[in-house]
Design a protein that fits this description.
By secondary structure, the chain is of the alpha/beta class. It has a single domain, classed as Vaccinia Virus protein VP39 (Rossmann fold, 3-Layer(aba) Sandwich), CATH 3.40.50. The chain is built from six helices and seven strands, in the order ααβαβαββαβαββ. The chain has a seven-stranded mixed sheet, sandwiched between helices. Strand 6 and strand 7 form a beta hairpin. Helix 1 packs antiparallel against helix 4 and helix 5 crosses helix 6. The longest helix is centred in the middle third of the chain and has 14 residues. The chain starts with a helix and ends with a strand.
């Protein structure tokens, strides 16, 4: 993780990977926030939607990198951020596959877990995730203080089993762990 953090600080001077004001709090605000999903991941491929600087996908790929795990697929449309993510994967030898596309341009494939952080409201996340959802797919979405309102809105069009988990990194944040997700 240290190599990832060092690369992020280095690349941040050239491209905007994270909000500059959050850089001094990198380990709690970004790394811990992402790493807290690890105990919830099931064996199998992971899809990280809108990966940006790699949160949470790259953190999870690094933490899962024991040589025999399924890949974490990071989807990001910004080619500069994809170059950064590929360099992090190379240096850390993380089992990450970087897709330089918009999510809707990616041909669907089987995944066990879908993750996202700071990408879109829940309804939009579920719309984007829909082609990748199977009855066995679980979603782990990091949400801020508006997470409950997003869940209420999302429940109008989607059926799901919901587990709310308090965030370890943000006292006002929650993790939405969604199972059996389908249109209602």
């Amino acid at each position: 993780m240290t190599a990832y953090a060092e690369l992020l600080v280095k690349w941040q001077t050239r491209i905007n990977l994270i909000g500059p004001a959050t850089l001094p709090d990198l380990w709690r605000r970004h790394m811990l926030d992402s790493a807290q999903l690890l105990p919830r991941l099931r064996p199998g491929p992971v899809l990280d939607m809108g990966s940006g600087a790699g949160f949470p996908g790259m953190v999870l790929a690094i933490l899962r990198s024991d040589g025999g795990v399924d890949p974490v697929h990071l989807v990001e449309s910004d080619s500069r951020k994809c170059a950064f993510l590929r360099e992090v994967a190379r240096v850390t030898q993380a089992p990450a596959v970087v897709h330089n596309k918009r999510l809707e341009q990616l041909n669907p494939f089987f995944v066990k877990t879908i993750t996202a952080r700071a990408l879109a409201p829940l309804s939009k996340l579920l719309d984007m995730a829909e082609p990748f959802l199977s009855p066995d797919t679980e979603c782990l979405f990091l949400k801020g203080k508006g997470g409950e309102d997003e869940l209420t809105e999302g429940s109008k069009d989607w059926m799901m089993l919901v587990e709310r988990i308090a965030s370890l990194a943000d006292p006002s944040g929650i993790i939405l762990h969604l199972r059996e997700v389908h249109r209602g």
